[in-house]
Design brief:
With 291 residues, the chain is an all-alpha fold. The chain is 74% helix and 0% strand. The N terminus is likely disordered.
Amino acid sequence: MTGRPGDLATQPQQHQSQQQRQSGRQATGPAAVPGPPVDYRITWPRVVRSEWAKLWSLRTTWSILAATLLVTAGLGAVVAGTYQSGDGDGVEPVELTLLGTQFGQILLAVLGVLVTAGEYASGMIRTSLTAVPRRLPVLWAKAAVFGGVALAVMFATVFLTFPLAQVFLSGTDMEADLGDPGVVRALCGAAVGIALLGLLCLGLGALLRSVPAAIGAYIGAVLVLPEVVGLLPYDVVDDVVACLPSKAAQALMLVGGGPDLLAPGPALLALCCSVAGTLALAALFLRRRDV
């Protein structure tokens, strides 16, 4: 031991002073510059934008929408190209040219089911509902995005198919023009009716949470059941069947109407009520069920 006792006593004080000088240098360093405040609020436009991105990020969306347009227009052209005057007894020109919509509406119905039930199959719904804990904005945003896209695609489809088919129907008893009475109204009714059927399937997908079950419910309850029930010999049955979604959509695309179908106005009201009822039931289950 060669150090003096006084030196040992002053060592802790020197070490403390060194720490104070270091902390002082850190405190006087450059201050962090706060960035702009980040807004993480969940708003309706952001939920809609999220659903828009999810819809168009799927290759299935592009495939089904393109197939809907091509099948409807292609089948309309084939039917018109092979048509001979007198073959269309009881069929209207708009109805003949839009025969392909029977397949197009099934394709659009499948896409509507995939928009909601597909997320339950992939597990994506957990992420969606975690990001939007109130849940219902997710369903309304899906309905708004899909409904707008389906309506735009169907308008483009029917207004492309009708002039295309009329090229082949020129000179036949099915020749018609967009300026003929009721033609534009029937084409718009076809687009709106099929888009609403797609929204109905979106609600079925959210309600049943299963792609096969929702597609089966659409084919069985919406497409097949009205044809079977309509065979019963009761007048009240005919009135009920005319209000069902598939019959109401069929009434919208006819210029002159049908004997067992509603007028366009009541048919649109009946179809809107069916879609609203299905979406309301899906919303109720979405609030009450666990994911």
